[in-house]
Design a protein that fits this description.
The chain is built from eight helices and 25 strands. The chain is of the alpha+beta class. It has a six-stranded antiparallel barrel with strand order 3-12-15-14-13-16. Strand 13 and strand 14 form a beta hairpin. Helix 6 packs antiparallel against helix 7. The chain is elongated, with a radius of gyration of 53 Å. It starts with a helix and ends with a helix.
């Protein structure tokens, strides 16, 4: 019995183990089938959306602003040279570097002793030549009277010869008397010929005397000019530069002693590319009279000067490219010849254009515009001008549309996007107009409160490092109704505000 009980218990354990093994195998098979079914099932994928910044394009009339760099030059510059060499015996108090002179001021004088002596000698020679001319004219008058007397005697001799021949024909006169009268008539005729020769000689002497007087007058004029050349006179109002002489110095003839510059008559020489020149020229090919603004940036303020383009260089120049233009400045307060300035030129207005960020246009001159389904489509936008970080494009195909302001390689036609920052970009980005400060090449301006204006004026008045003329001009700008933003930012930055 004991053996049978143990055998039945062992059989029971074997059955339980077999059941457990079968259940585990069934569970494993079902789990593998379920996993295989799950791997074969893929849920529907969601379409990915990209976040983009957009701007609204509005077509308008825009005057592009061309920016370049140029050098300020003086339109009137005179090299001061000493026409006559010698010792400097007189020097003007204003003859120094930066000295201001007026037209007609005597700047210096060299020793005039030799020039004065030569002038007196020339004047003496002139008086001698004039005396010789007077004597020759008197001799000519005497020769004319002598010829007239000889002709009178000839008339008498001719009458006597005629009378003797009449007497001889009537048989009253003699042959010897007729011959004697003929000899007398021939002698009188010879005398007239001699007097005519003397008259011609007297006339030639008068002509030679006139030539002598003319040469003497020329010598006097040269001596007077040499005396005048012993002093250097300012030809126009201006400022002296490069002064290089002193009292008592010995100057050589034609030696340069300085330069006279007119600081109130300035121009700017600048160079533009051939493409920019083609944009500036009119349809007829001539360069229009366009306004320019010159900027000279400094620590405390920006000096500005307005002008207009006047001419262009006739040749490109060896090793150069583009075109060289010249603009005459109407106002030049604070600028001096040699300053390197930024030049902005306002071009003629372009209709149907819009200003957008340069990152919105690709190399093919296309932009990505939003559709009603928030998807992108490619539209053409030909670039007309480049304005810093913005571009001026033809808005005929994108006017009124929202475009992506910053292109990305992930964006393309048909992609669905999500618009972010539309209000911020629409207000400060490209709206079809020009950015602040671009209109006419002028800086953006703001209206100051009375308290803020007084603080800035007090700071300018207390700045002792600033030149008087710059301080006056800066004060005038701050007192205006609209003040440039860049000027306010610079001054407040210097104040630590």
């Amino acid at each position: 019995m004991k053996f049978l009980r143990r055998s039945l218990f062992g059989l029971f354990l074997v059955s339980v183990c077999a059941a457990l093994i079968f259940g585990a195998g069934s569970k494993m098979v079902s789990s593998f089938k379920e996993k295989s079914a799950q791997e074969g099932f893929r849920p529907p994928a969601r379409e990915r959306q990209f976040a983009v910044n957009v701007v609204t394009v509005e077509a308008a009339k825009i005057a592009p602003v061309l920016s370049t760099f140029g050098e300020v030059r003086a339109r009137r510059t005179l090299e001061l040279r000493a026409p006559q060499g010698g010792e400097v015996v007189e020097l003007s108090s204003t003859f120094q570097e930066g000295g201001s002179v007026k037209a007609g001021d005597v700047l210096l004088r060299v020793d005039p002793t030799d020039a004065e002596s030569n002038l007196r000698v020339a004047q003496a020679d002139l008086q001698e030549a004039e005396a010789e001319l007077s004597d020759a004219e008197r001799g000519l008058k005497i020769a004319e009277d002598d010829l007239e007397a000889a002709r009178g005697q000839l008339d008498l001799r001719v009458a006597a010869l005629t009378r003797q021949r009449n007497l001889a024909d009537r048989g009253v006169g003699t042959q010897s008397a007729t011959e004697t009268a003929a000899l007398s008539e021939a002698s009188a005729r010879q005398s007239v010929l001699s007097k005519r020769q003397s008259l011609a000689s007297a006339a030639a002497r008068v002509d030679q005397s006139k030539n002598g007087v003319l040469r003497a007058e020329i010598n006097v004029s040269e001596a007077q000019r040499a005396l005048q050349n012993t002093q250097v006179v300012a030809a126009f109002d201006g400022t002296l530069s490069g002064v290089s002489t002193a009292l008592g110095a010995i100057l050589n003839a034609n030696e340069q002693i300085g330069s006279l510059v007119d600081p109130s008559d300035l121009e700017i020489s600048f160079r533009v590319s051939t493409q920019q020149y083609a944009n500036l020229t009119s349809a007829s090919g001539s360069l229009p009279d366009l306004p320019v603004v010159a900027y000279l940036s400094m620590a405390d303020l920006d000096l500005t000067a307005n002008g207009r383009i006047t001419r262009e260089s006739a040749v490109v120049g060896t090793g150069q490219s583009g075109r060289q233009l010249f603009a005459q400045l109407g106002t030049s307060l604070g600028l001096r010849p040699g300053d390197f300035v930024t030049v902005r030129i306002q071009e003629p207005e372009i209709s149907g254009a819009a200003m957008i960020p340069s990152a919105a246009v690709d190399a093919s001159n296309t932009v990505l515009a939003l559709t009603d389904e928030s998807r992108l489509e490619v539209l053409p936008a030909a670039i007309l001008r480049r304005q810093g970080d913005d571009v001026l494009v033809d808005a005929s195909a994108i006017s009124g549309r929202q475009i992506v302001s910053e292109r990305s390689p992930l964006l393309g036609a048909g992609i669905r996007v999500k618009v972010i920052g539309a209000d911020a970009q629409g207000a400060g980005g490209a709206t079809g107009g020009q950015p602040a400060g671009a209109q006419g090449g002028q800086a953006a301006t703001i209206a100051l409160t009375d308290e803020r204006r007084e603080i800035l004026l007090a700071f300018v008045a207390s700045n002792t490092r600033m030149p008087d003329e710059v301080r006056a001009r800066l004060t005038e700008q701050l007192k205006a109704k609209e003040v440039p933003v860049s000027l306010v930012e610079r001054l407040e930055g210097r104040m630590g505000g």
